[in-house]
């Protein structure tokens, strides 16, 4: 069966993934910055249905973890003490989607915490931090891509529509930006902005920096579309009837660029999420205690963490389903654009 | 010849532009290396002002640019405040290490991608090709950072390869063969991370462009003439598909340079990456500018090599005499 929109499937998957992250407060069992100094580096707690005696439980449970004697970060499973999972449990207060106050969490437990992905050095629940961190990282990617595309649209439209020396000058600058390896460019831009700022300011700084780096490629693509669109007969006719520049651009030319912009968005967003991760990982992005996918990983730069607490790596894999979704979306959009080509991705997804 | 001159002129223009851009950014920068000193009550404000004056940080932008240009011409490339030395010698050691990684990774990645892509294109749409497509898709959705960190975690836990740094502690005492072996062992992990992150896209592009060529009538004719399969694939098909691949080669160098920046920091390889990060954190202005500029030079030379290859591979460019 042929669906009307082959990319609808990917959009649905991505929508679901983003919804989970957007409602992090509900899906995360605990507050992301609440510290439990007595439980540093808890290992991941797997869920069970069958206990050590072979009894089947209807409610999933985890085994409580006990500190080994004489250590501060070595735990052993206490198979006699079960921590049953309680669903729709009331816990720490949060605001759903930023405005709906609520206390209900998807799951929780009575006495001991259930930390599905373990805890970090301060005993903060990694699973909750992962979900909340996704909000920051994904939002940075989305806003950054929006920034880039609007810059690209303006520059590309101006260059393509007005042509002449404006076109030459703008495209020369675009070449300059294309010539730099993007991570170096990101570094250079970041280098000259203040280092220690509040998480909120840092976030917008990062968005601005990431958004300013990649405008050149969408600008070139938009320019190409505009160049061909402005020679179309209906555009010429409209011009002949006395349509103004702004009317022509708004009504006839810019709508033509929408599919290019959509495809670029699907390519850019995961790249930008990764850029945010990279910057935060290196300590140039969103600072602690606010979680982001990048700074969740940054303690892996310490050798001791790397050796002893491998589960600190798990957040790195959170990006994979999102990448998959965006990749699928981008290629199905591209297929729609150029149905005659065998699957081929623009080099833009590489650089 | 005119073709090369034109490319060269283009490259020079580009470098000039990038250097101006980098300097423009520095004016946006709030604060500089000596601002930290100003907070220190033990250092007199006059001392800070004198240091600023000594390094010309209080002068207007064109003057700073001119004096930096002057020091570039004299082979110093500005002055590092943190290392208290000219930037050039500092940078060149690091650049050598970065190039060692990037060039090795580029060669290996293309060395794997070309035969694998051709192999896959020959079986286009059949089971082995589909399997490979799935494998490249799987690699493609793992972000670089996750890949590099994953390799590192794996290696640290298994101890298969040494992690961190470029050489062992007893490197100086080893014989030449031992030195090479030690270096190769230390390189394995970062190079593997780079190759794995670059590979999926390269394979996909090689496969797509070779598959497109294999549909062409001249391939059918050549096959009808009884030209052996291997010759057909590598001498005729690959040659015809070379054009987009060579442009991709230029892009892949840029991607690998960016990738190596991250991999170097993750695996603590003493290349440009850690130096650049350090100098950003301490606001060591000229090191950042030079680092960015150097990376542009690498990229531009990579594209230049791609142009030479294109010139060699595509007779159309030779006859056009430089106009593209």
What does this structure look like?
- The complex is a heterodimer of chains A (351) and B (324).
- Chain A is built from 13 helices and 5 strands.
- Chain A is of the alpha+beta class and 351 residues long.
- In chain A, the strands form 2 sheets. Chain A has a 3-stranded antiparallel sheet, with no helix packed on it.
- In chain A, a hairpin with a 5-residue loop joins strand 1 (48-50) and strand 2.
- The radius of gyration of chain A is 25 Å and the shape is elongated.
- Chain A starts with 7 loop residues before the first helix and ends in a 14-residue tail after the last helix.
- Chain B has 324 residues and is an all-alpha fold.
- Chain B is 77% helix and 1% strand.
- Chain B has helices at 2-28, 35-39, 45-54, 61-73, 87-122, 127-140, 144-158, 176-214, 217-224, 229-240, 242-266, 272-281, 285-313, 315-320, and strands at residues 79-80, 85-86.
- Chain B is globular.
- The model of chain B has no long low-confidence stretch (mean pLDDT 82).
- Classes of the chains: A alpha+beta (351), B mainly alpha (324).
- At the A-B interface, helix 4, helix 5, helix 10, helix 12 and helix 13 of A face helix 1, helix 7, helix 8, helix 11 and helix 12 of B.
Write the layout of secondary structure elements.
The complex is a heterodimer of chains A (351) and B (324).
Chain A: H1 8-22, H2 24-27, E1 48-50, E2 56-67, E3 75-84, E4 86-96, E5 100-108, H3 126-162, H4 164-179, H5 182-191, H6 199-213, H7 216-229, H8 233-240, H9 245-253, H10 258-281, H11 293-297, H12 303-308, H13 319-337
Antiparallel strand pairs in A: 1-2, 2-3, 4-5
Chain B: H1 2-28, H2 35-39, H3 45-54, H4 61-73, E1 79-80, E2 85-86, H5 87-122, H6 127-140, H7 144-158, H8 176-214, H9 217-224, H10 229-240, H11 242-266, H12 272-281, H13 285-313, H14 315-320
Antiparallel strand pairs in B: 1-2
Helix pairs in contact in B: 1-13, 5-6, 5-8, 5-11, 5-13, 6-8, 7-8, 7-11, 8-11, 11-12, 11-13, 12-13
What is the general shape of chain A? elongated
| Contiguous helical run count of chain A | 13
Question: Which residues of chain A form runs of ≥5 with pLDDT under 50?
Answer: 341-351
Q: Using only CA atoms, what is the Rg of chain B?
A: 24 Å
Instruction: Report mean pLDDT of chain A, rounded to a whole number.
Output: 82
End-to-end distance of chain A, in Å? 36 Å
Quick one: how many beta strands of chain A?
5
Largest interface: A-B, 52 and 60 residues
